[in-house]
């Protein structure tokens, strides 16, 4: 695994540089990780979190269908998807609407500080149901997003997220979009980064440009672009998206 590209590729937000690696705080875990190993997290959790159970070589081979993908994969060998806690992932991408990564990180850290649990100076993310004060949530810097986060906090359950993992992609995507504030892109992010829906292909302005410029796609609807990408790259389209996104953003 290449730690920097994996953590800095826009799929996870509560981390910071520490020594020669990174401190990650996510769910019930706080741990240090670099390219040589990790500390502070059980090995099974580490393997699950960084998807070490994926057949990485086979996935990369399956998605490397053209010169564009070859360049993206060559630029960031070892980039992996992360298997996140679905609740924290949902709030993270609700915070991501029309903003930038530093602000998302700030807002999530504020939410953890205000609503979460502190242990040895580390603020862990609040559980479902604990983000229960919309005014305090606004003070965390979330702006108009506060009403959506607060509403979703009162709707979802652990069972809901477990069910998403068992649904087919279309059904799970539709179920998420019934929640306040969740559109097609946020739904795809949640499915890809926390629900093992590996064919999900989130599309933002970066990915739209990649598909239009390199794959002859006209700028049409989200559904049109996403369907093309999922059909073209197949069962592991989400991995292709992450390589292309990180590559394009850093050109």
Tags for this entry?
two-stranded antiparallel sheet; four-stranded antiparallel beta sheet; 14 helices; alpha+beta; 10% strand; Endonuclease III, domain 1; 251 residues
Question: Could you walk me through the main structural features you see in this protein, from its secondary elements to its overall organization?
Answer:
With 251 residues, the chain is an alpha+beta fold. It has a domain at 86-194: Endonuclease III, domain 1 (Orthogonal Bundle), CATH 1.10.340.30. The chain is 54% helix and 10% strand. The chain contains 14 helices and six strands. The strands form two sheets. A four-stranded antiparallel β-sheet has the order 1-2-3-4. A hairpin with a 2-residue loop joins strand 5 and strand 6 (122-124). The mean pLDDT is 95.
Give the overall silhouette: globular
Q: Spans of 5+ residues with little confidence (pLDDT < 50)?
A: none
Distance between the termini: 21 Å
Please give the radius of gyration in angstroms: 18 Å
Name the strands of the widest sheet in spatial order. 1-2-3-4
How would you briefly describe this protein structure?
The protein is an alpha+beta fold. Helices cover 54% and strands 10% of the residues.
Record the SSE blueprint.
Elements: H1 3-7, E1 15-18, E2 21-26, E3 29-34, E4 37-39, H2 43-49, H3 56-63, H4 67-75, H5 86-95, H6 101-115, E5 117-119, E6 122-124, H7 134-142, H8 145-153, H9 158-166, H10 169-177, H11 184-194, H12 205-214, H13 222-233, H14 237-249
Antiparallel strand pairs: 1-2, 2-3, 3-4, 5-6
